[in-house]
Specification:
Blueprint lengths: L2 H12 L7 E5 L2 E5 L4 H15 L6 E4 L4 E3 L4 E3 L3 E5 H6 L5 E2 L5 E5 L5 H15 L3 E6 L7 E9 L2 E9 L3 E4 L5 E4 L15 E7 L5 E7 L2
Length: about 220
């Protein structure tokens, strides 16, 4: 890891985020996102429960698991990550290399929409994570779900996509069909805004902050 990445990770470790907030590094920027909405949690919970029925015994399903892609540089915290349990038993670390994940899930929210649709899928693909499920209740054409797979050259192939309501089939080793008809639709965006914070580090390790709305 180069010096810039080490500085970013050190800042990530030393920054005290408010309780319930998510702290990530997105393209070299330390981003602190306020707590998610109840509908966001409901969607994540539905996916988590269904995955629990299908994952092999030696894999774990985690929320708030930090995954590192130093080349971007990024330290992402997906809504759900499927990771081999053995990694957590043998390593006393606060994040894992993203390439160790088997599957990641992101649920788009207002403040995270750009990164969830762009930077993070590219990072997951670059790391070679086999499957990535993007649930987008705010998609321009209406709430939609996309399953990405077969990563190569920093990009995914779209395996399946459609509006909420279509069944999404996760391939081997999951062999699981997700019913997206139960995913909640978002409330009026005007009722879901409050301030958040982003911080970045330059080559002299100084930092700067800017405001962003809530998830």
């Amino acid at each position: 890891m180069d010096d810039e990445w080490k500085q970013l990770v050190q800042l990530w470790r030393e920054t005290d985020a408010p309780e319930g907030c998510r702290m990530e590094i997105i393209g070299g920027v330390l981003s602190i996102t306020p707590p998610a909405s109840l509908t966001h949690h409901r969607t994540v919970g539905q996916v988590h429960r269904r995955l629990h029925e299908a994952v092999p015994e030696h894999w774990g399903i985690f929320q708030q698991m930090a995954l590192a892609v130093p080349s971007r540089p990024g330290l992402y915290v997906p809504d759900v990550a499927v990771v081999p349990d053995g990694l957590l038993r043998t390593e006393d670390v606060d994040f894992l290399p993203a390439e160790e994940a088997v599957h990641v899930v992101e649920v788009v929210s207002e403040v995270t929409a750009n990164r969830d649709r762009g930077e993070k899928p590219a990072g997951y693909a670059e790391a070679g994570i086999p499957l990535h499920l993007l649930i987008d209740p705010l998609a321009p054409g209406g709430p939609a779900v996309t399953l990405y797979g077969e990563p190569g050259d920093g990009a995914y192939r779209i395996l399946q996509a459609g509006p909420f309501g279509v069944p999404i089939r996760l391939p081997v080793p999951f062999e699981l069909t997700l019913d997206s008809s139960g995913f909640p639709h978002p409330r009026n965006a005007a009722t879901r805004t409050s301030p958040g914070t982003e911080t970045t580090v330059d080559n002299s390790t100084a930092s700067r902050a800017s405001a962003s709305p809530t998830r």
